[in-house]
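One record is set out below.
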Amino acid sequence: MKKSKPEKIKSMPHQPSPSEKAATRRLARMADGIVKSATQKRSGAKPALHLLRPLNSPALTIPRGKDRALTQSGMLQQALALNRPGGETPKIVSGFRMQLDQALDSTGHGVVIEKLLPFAANALERDLFNLIHETKPELFAECSDPLKALLQLRILYVPMVCRGLLNHEIEKNKSEMLWLGALSAYSVAFERTLLERMYSAASKARFASKDSNKIKNWAASELGGTIFRWFDKAEKDFKFWLSRFDQWLEYAMRSLDHYYGCQSIDYRRRKGKTKVAAQLGILKSLGAIPDAYVADLLEGVMADSQTRQMFRKNAKKRPTTPSNIEFEHWLIECWPLVLGYGWNYLDLKRAASLRFPDLSQEKLSEEILALKDRCKKLGLKLGRGSKKVGRPTKSMVFVNPLLYQVALMIDGLEDSEWFFGNTKAGFKTFASPSGQD
C-alpha cells in the first residue's frame, strides 16, 4: 500500500443556537475552574499540573495487557456486562443497581460525585472525579438518576477537563505532548462518541446530507439543544453509550501504544520495569521526557542496572517514522466502528478508499487480502457479527458501510492535533474550553 495524504474534508462553520452557546459557556467555565484548581500554587510550590504528577507518568498511560491503565474497575465491568449477550442476570442487575443507587444524596433527588468513585475506570478518572467533586460538588444536585450522572461525568465532564489541561500545554510541540497521551485519548473519545451518536441518529431518521453543518444543526434540533440531552432519548440506554465511549477510549490508547511500539522493539517485547525503562528512553530520544513529573520514576530506573541499561539504549535511538503509519493509526482508531456495526474487510476497504483515495492501485482482491493481513499484524480482529468476505468478484458493488461518515472524520495519532485533543471533527465541534465555537 502506498502512503498518501489524508483526504481533506472541508469544514463548514457551525452556527450554534442560543441554548447551545449557553451550555458551551457553562461547561467552559466549569472546566476552566477545575483546571485552575489543578494548576494553582500549593504550599508555596511553583505552579504545576499537580494532578498529573502521580498519574501520567508513562507507566500509567499506556495499555499493558491485563494490567493496562484503562482496565475497567470490577464495578464498571458489571455495568457494561449488561450489554453483552447473557450478561443481564438478575444477580448482576440487582447488585449493580443497588451499588449505583448508593450514589444518591440524602434527599434521593441528587447524586454525590464522590460516591461514584467506585465506578471510575482507572486511576486518572478517580482523581478527576475527586477534582470535579472538590470544585463543583453540586454538579448533579438536581439529577435523580445515578447512571445518567455517571454517563455525563465520564463521557462529557472528564474529557472536557482533560482538554482544559491539555490547553495549558498548547505552546508545546507534538513530541512534548506525548507523555500526556491519556488526556488526549479521553478528548478524542469524547468527540467520537458524540459523532457516533449524531450520525447513528441521523441514519435511523433517514436524514441524509453530505453537509456536516446541516447534520450538526439537525442534531441540535432533534437530539436536544445541548450535548447534555443527546443521550436522554437515545434508542440505546446509558450503559450502551458508556460501553461505546470505553471502546473509543481503548482504541485511542492502543494507537498511542502502537506509536511507542514503532519506535522500539524493546517496548513491544518487554514487560514490567524494563518496558517502562524503554518507554522513558523513547521519550528521552524524542526530547520529550517530562523530568519534573517522572523524576521519582526515572530515579528508580537509574538505580537498577538492567533498567538503566534499557533506558540508555533507547535514549540513543533515532526517532523513526514507518511507512503507512498514518494509515495504521487510522485503522486502529476507527476499529470501534468495525466492532460496533459489524463491518467486514470489504466495508473497511470502502471506508479506507474514501478516507485515503490514493492508498492503493492494486486489484480489489489483492487490496482486501493486504488489508486483512495488515489488520492482523496490528492485532485487529473483526467482531462476532461481521460477515467475512471471501475472494471479491467483479460483480461486487461497493456500498458505504453504516456510519462510514465517522471514519472519514477520524485523524489518527500521527496528526499533531491528536495530542491536543482535536482531530478532523474538532473538539470545538461539540464544546470548547475557551467558551467559543
In short: The mean pLDDT is 74. DSSP finds 19 helices and no strands in the chain.
